[in-house]
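Hi, here's the filled form for the chain we discussed.

Project: internal
Contact: R.S.
Residues: 402
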Amino acid sequence: MSDSGFAPRSPAFLADPYPAYAELRDRGRVLYYEPSDQWLVPHHADVSALLRDRRLGRSYGHRFTHEEFGKSAPEPGHEPFHELNDHGMLELEPPDHTRIRRLVSKAFTARTVERLKPYVRRLAAELAGRLVERGGGDLLKAVAEPLPVAVIAEMLGVPEADRPLLRPWSAAICAMYELNPGEETARRAVTASREFSAYLRELIAVRREKPGDDLISGLLAAVDGGEKLTGAEMVATCALLLNAGHEATVNSTVNGWHALFRHPGQLAALRADRALLPTAVEELLRFDTPLQLFERWVLDEIEIGGTTVPRGAEVALLFGSANHDPAAFATPDVLDLARRDNPHISFGAGIHYCIGAPLARIELTASMEALLDLAPGLSPAAEPVRKPNFVIRGLEGLPVVV
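And the returned structure, exactly as it came back:
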């Protein structure tokens, strides 16, 4: 694939990866990419099917040792990261995944999320109002970031004074999900994991002694068939909910507004008709996908389009490409806020479908509505800088005037 436009470290690719994805889709259903030792899967139908295929897994330890699977054990020095990351349900397969997700679902209920709606709307209006009072600023720092961080922290019962700690920890840990992270990235992730874990253990201990109506107390109380979350699972679950509970929403917000600014006709239509909001949120999630890639291990040999992918290989399911596949979307490269037929997979599919998707939709709708109401003239103040990341797609900031 040396002649391919797929170049995850290239600034041109990071600015707009979608033409390269079209090239990948034209070239086949699965393509081996040597730099990351992965098989790229660019088509919507294949990505959607493989997310549900039990021959693939987020982990392999439930079936194989590292040696049996042909892999090396993680570096011993990276243990704090793996202790925090690998006990979360996103990284587990059944039966552990099933048990943990069921326990989390007992605390993270639709009723819990629905009850947050007034708080989310109020906070979104407050943040948008402050941005307007200042005459503009960085939309990421002013609205996109503080809203979901505050909401998930409020849910979990993280004291307000501690919330500024969360985003730096999360950023350092999530950097490990990029392709081929370097040793310096790993060092920062290990430090963040150690500090985050120590903080969460202390917070969990407080809630164990003095339960409240927060999600941590709910997780501690959750019992399913006599089983509860272990100590390591509690810490990992809280970290996952805090990290996943805001990362995608932050990036969806700035990616979405950046797309709207580049499509003034669509922004004008949304300003004129708020009934477009539900489909607009889904279309913005599709159009510039916040999570571009989701990795799975091949646990049992599979065939994709006549190509055999062996056990022990890793597939890279290209969400960004799948969400622009003309086989699944009419005029996929057109931003259409009224799009009804929109089977985007920005929240995944199968057993690892994002448990926080309903909350993310509430947050995205609330922040967009508040900005449309309070900053009807919102416009870009400068061209934003794209983060040098591929897997988690976002901006360094989004300067705006009101």
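Let me know if anything looks off before we file it.
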